[in-house]
Each structure stands twice: as C-alpha cells, then as structure tokens.
Amino acid sequence: MSKELRVGMIGYGFMGRAHSNAYKRLNDFFPVEHRPALKAVAARDATKAQAFARNWGYERVETDWKKVVRADDIDLIDVCAPNHMHKDIVLEAAKAGKMVCCEKPLAMNVDEAQEMVEAVEKAGVPNMVWYNYRRVPAIALAKQIVDEKRIGKPFHYRATYLQDWTIAEDVPQGGAATWRLDIDVAGSGVTGDLLAHSIDSAMWLNGPISRVVARTETFVKQRKHAVTGKLQDVGIDDACMFLAEFANGSMGTFESTRYARGRKNFNTLELNGADGSVYFDLEDPEYLHFFEYTRQAPKTKVESHLTGWRKIHVTNSEHPYMDKYWVPGTCIGYEHTFLNALADFVTGIETGEPTQPDFRNALQTQKVCDAVLLSAKTGLWADTGAE
Question: How far apart are CA 297 and CA 295, in angstroms?
C-alpha cells in the first residue's frame, strides 16, 4: 500500500513548475512507496497562485507561507521562493518537524546556511537541496567513471556556465521576474545562481575546493527597479571567473557570465587525470565524452592509432537512471533531472540513508561561493574552510 507524501510548495515560478512536474510523475517511473499529494501552494499573488494551483493540481492556495508550513496535512515543504526567504522558511519548517527540499543556493551567505543546517539536523528531518545537474544521467555516469578510478590522479577541472539574458541595459532589477538582479533578494549574481551549480558538480566529482582567487564584474552599474521604477545601483555580479585549488592537489578554472551573446544555458565541465578525462555539455545532455589512456606494455600490441575520445550516448539501461525510462537510443530531458532527484530523496526517506546533497553538503558549496565573492573584493586568495 502506498504512503502519501503531502507537499506544500512555497513559490510558483520556473522551479515551482519543474518540481511540481516531478511530484506528479514520480510514481509513473520509480517504484517507491510514497505517492506525492499536492496539498498547498503559497505565494503573495493570489491570482497567479490560483492559476498555478489549478494547472498543476494543488488543492489550495495560501498567501501566507507560514500557514502552509504549520499545516497538519503537510509532510514536505518545498522552498521555491527567492533566496532571501530561504532561511526563514526552512527554520519554520524544521521547527514544525517538516521535511524540507530547498532550491539552490541554500542561503544568502554562509551564516544563514549554517543556521539552516543546524535547524534541520536538530529537528532530525530529511532534507535536500535541488542541485539537479547531479541527476543528469551523463554527469552521474561521469561520477561512476571517477569512482571506478578510470580518471586516475586528477590534474585539472574546468567549468563554464554562460547565459545572455541580462545584456540589455533596460532589463530592470527586482520584482517577480528579475529578482535575480536584486542584491537584497538574490544575495549575489552569477556566483550564487549559476556557479553554485558548477561548484556543486565539481566537488561531487573531484572533492573539496580548498581555496580560490576570483574576479567579478558588473557591466551595467545602474538599473531601474521593477517595482519602484527608481534608478538604483546594481549590486550583483554579472560575470565571475575564479581559479581554484582542490584538496586533492588538482587545479580548477571556473567561468560564468550572463553576457555571453548567443549562450542560453551553456553549462560544461571537464576533468583531466593521469589515466583519462571526462567532458560534458548541457546543450548536448545525452552524451558524455570520455578519454581513456592506455599504457603500452612490453610485448603487447596496443592499437594506438585508434586512441581517442569516446562519445557515449547515455541512454542504455545500464546507465544511471535510464532503466526507469525508455529503450536505448531515446533521450530524456531537463525536467527528468528533477524527477531523478526527487526519486533519490524519496528512496532516502524509505531506506533511512540521507540523500545528497543535503543541507550540510550544500553548506560547503555556500562556503566556496562566499570565498569567491570575498576574493573578488580583496583581490587575494580566500580559503573555503573545506571539510
């Protein structure tokens, strides 16, 4: 007999849609015991929230998120609100004994994130941060390759995350659509929004980042506020580049910008080691590129003229997550990364093995983000407090 997992959603934007789709499709693809029930959505705009609720099948709408968090018929709080609201919602949810899934970045800064970690751990509630790119089958396969020691001693990690949607000077800051450009709501620009994903993937594949040195730039210094209409200074970073040292001795380069004309969601990673390399491009997500170095042994014929990169089509049933979907050669999409993440979270509830990344794991990503921003201000290397 299935068990209900009663969901309360805080927020109804892009991520609210992505998460709601995952809740609705979970049991269609994954044989877990829990069956999500979409109970309530909370948002300030009641009219838009009602439309969202009707479309996705939520039972009711609240304009006060605390009513959802404290409701007796809610088991899981899903935090899809802007970054500056994460801490208050999570602390209230932990106090109410609710499970919590939170969008990234975890918080506005390390101090907030630390408080959130302590709250959920004290309450003993299951928790997860939606770093969904871990659940791209090709990236999960890269992790498998690393764990199988096929990369060998790592030397280099490089990541790029490029977009172009804020280039125009007349794009406003603040409000429902462009809060990511408002420092008081977002906490940072591309560092927390885009590079947080890159950092999470990097540390998952290559271990902790020990220290960083960074440079950020804000290309448009002032923008009108979408709510007040007043021209005001822009506090977020439009672009960020940083060098990283990993605890395992390897080096890393990270680049992110919203000013890369023609790039919509260009997210790449590459790891080079003594025995091999992996490369991934989110705009070609069903493929993982893998190079395996074969040492030539004495008296052994090695076909060195065939050495080269393999382009692996990650759609076979033996590939991560793919046995839950279609036949080999057919692809899944962006939305399935959230479905895979939710399935892992629910499986963790049922087995008692916490799903990663949990809040404590995401705290380390927050520490790297804060170190990046600190370094950009000082021009000096900044330690991350790697654990």
Answer: 6
